[in-house]
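input
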Amino acid sequence: MKYLSVAQVSKKWGINERRVRALLAENRIEGAIYEKHKYMIPSDASKPLDRRIKGQRCFEDSPLKSVNIDFKNYRKLYPSIDGFFGRYGGSYLPKELQKAMQEIYAGYLTIAKSAKFIAELREIRKNYQGRPTPVYHCQNLSNHFGKVQIYLKREDLNHGGAHKLNNAMGQALLAKYLGKKKLIAETGAGSHGSAVAMSAAYFGLECDIYMGAVDMEKQAPNVDRMRVLGARVIPVYEGTQTLKEAVDAAFNAYAKEYKTAFYCLGSAVGPHPYPLIVRDFQEIIGREAKQQFLDMTGELPDIVCACVGGGSNAIGMFEAFLEEPVNIVGVEPMGKGKEIGNNAASVTFGKETILHGFNTLVLTNEDGTPANAYSIASGLDYPGVGPEHAFLHEIGRVKYETVTDDEAAEAFFLLSRLEGIIPAIESAHALAYAIKCAKRMKSGSILVNLSGRGDKDLDFMISKYPHYLKR
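output
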């Protein structure tokens, strides 16, 4: 009998050595022996199949056992033709704007589904955006906490430094086919605004970006980037001067210019068909990540998680895993605490109401009006959540957990120090949840969507948490 080393088997099976050793520790490689402090594996040993692919649940409380929905056909069923995920979603707009939404929807169903459109978008993703982005194994971070393996879907390596360009280029391409001359958008952290500015430059369109004055101060590097790219950045001084007010201002501007302009909505929110459009343009994240993770490890992850504000990066990540027996977790910002006004955890504390033209879970005041949302992450401080997230929460397929400002900050600096990767503070919320899991789990794997890079957050985080620099 010929035997191979762990390194040789790793190369033969196309998985990393850490995964081979884990399979050996679980006694899942037949005929393997341990002699003289090393493993010897039969050359004809078969690569074990993923136990979850064969039908076993990764955890006993796996939500698939209690959710009575055909997830293999989920995308065909949801949303409904009028834009509802269960009772969430829809379109509640003035008559004139409703006509604009119908034009966008009709264009999307015809133009964006055509072979020509799809071919052009694929070329853009490959040669302009630099897709596919990789899945990265955080070996140092994993070793820091024990046996749980943490992996990152590196959307921070997408052109522009975030997942936002996946959606912005798709919508801008649709705007071009519809004959529009200008892109109008809102932004919180500035990542979506930067992506829209890039898209406008690429297609030769005018560009107006509405941004809360508070967010403009916190995210100054992205404001400068948008301006360098040729966009007109318009400060919003109403209310809390953050994302909600930026959306209000952008919608008001679009209502005046909808005949010649296209509204590029940045998250999986808003009136139908935007939650559908954003999901479809962002689901490339999960499709890539699922295949990449299988190629790397031979298995599916135990947990897939992503941060959730409005929810575009999360819905893009989750879609490919809905039909799999994998735990899916959306991580909301708990901010400073549970009191209304101190967080932006819309799924956790929200109530069903209509916001910005759609029905969803919204943080509300005692009188039922939308409350002020807060998060250290400008991209997460929205008082509502995408209707699909509200639906997935209601049916129990996705769990929604929370992370505080301080927990996200700790994860921000820890990943930077241990892996040399500076995450966006939004993405650090999902990473913080993975770290909490790694501390309490004995084994397993967690796949985190690292939705953006943290260049934009450096000045703010250093000024707010200077003590981390002394460690």
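quick obs: The two ends are 53 Å apart (CA to CA).
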